[in-house]
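Please decode residue identities from the backbone states below.
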């Protein structure tokens, strides 16, 4: 068995523009009291607001969807939850899985449209977390270079007659500490390993980046924000002194064949919802 052990690279990055925007929105209204109630303030999402706090809260449609638009939501939700199968298949509307993959349905990682998570223990399977791979350098559009043999994402599952790329494993080290008030805490530091690599060792200088599956709610609204509004929030050097810095990410969009603002993914590396799921 061939093993390649790699410590995780830092996932710390400048916040995506939408994260800055959300942060500013959440900060508004501080210091409000019951006597300063404004009509409609309980509608945090305006007419889209869902009054549901259970496990399915993120899975509901916007409340102002009606008729044909709501029908489209349910069609899309059905595709999101269906299990894809290997092509060719008698169920031509849901075949095309593989040849290698992480899960056979979107909802396997984005369960109930919520955020995924890492394995709780070394024995658990990777579901809701994937590993991005890159090597030093950039491609012709400025995007990260993937590993020559494994590409930009490690896939530990495969269809019949096709070998999976290998196995990804995680172990945790407890890092205990104490808050200023004396309360004890413990953080877990993950260390990732790769075993049974089918196509040989990773390239020299390989870099890994674990990514949990993000939540799905509100992505359509994010896509509707005009570029100028996002750019107005850019503050890479914290010029306004509020302790928050952030810059937009510009990415290559194959559809328009141009450089545009990135909006989707943990590092805003996709320009549209179509690119995010493609």
């Amino acid at each position: 068995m061939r093993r390649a052990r790699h410590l995780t690279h830092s996932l710390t990055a400048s916040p995506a523009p939408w994260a800055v925007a959300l942060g500013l929105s959440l900060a508004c209204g501080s210091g409000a009291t019951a006597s300063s109630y404004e009509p409609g303030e309980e509608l945090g999402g305006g007419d889209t607001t869902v009054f549901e706090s259970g496990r399915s809260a993120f899975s509901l449609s916007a409340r102002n969807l009606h008729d044909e638009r709501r029908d489209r939501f349910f069609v899309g939700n059905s595709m999101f939850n269906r299990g894809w199968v290997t092509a060719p298949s008698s169920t031509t509307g849901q075949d095309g899985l593989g040849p290698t993959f992480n899960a056979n349905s979107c909802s396997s990682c984005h369960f109930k449209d919520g955020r995924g998570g890492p394995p709780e223990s070394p024995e658990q399977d990777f579901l809701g977390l994937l590993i991005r791979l890159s090597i030093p350098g950039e491609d012709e559009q400025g995007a990260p270079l993937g590993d020559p043999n494994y590409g930009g994402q490690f896939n530990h599952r495969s269809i019949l007659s096709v070998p999976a790329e290998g196995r990804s494993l995680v172990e945790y080290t407890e890092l205990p500490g104490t808050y200023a008030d004396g309360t004890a805490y413990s953080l877990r530091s993950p260390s990732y390993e790769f075993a049974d690599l089918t196509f040989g060792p990773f390239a020299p200088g390989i870099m890994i980046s674990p990514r949990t599956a993000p939540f799905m709610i509100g992505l359509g609204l994010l896509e509707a924000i005009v570029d100028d509004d996002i750019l107005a929030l850019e503050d890479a050097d914290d010029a306004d002194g509020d302790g928050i810095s952030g810059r937009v990410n510009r990415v290559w969009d194959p559809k328009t064949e141009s450089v545009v603002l990135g909006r989707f993914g943990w590092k805003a590396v996709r320009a549209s919802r179509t690119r995010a799921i493609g």
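Observation: Residues 67-81 form the longest helix (15 residues).
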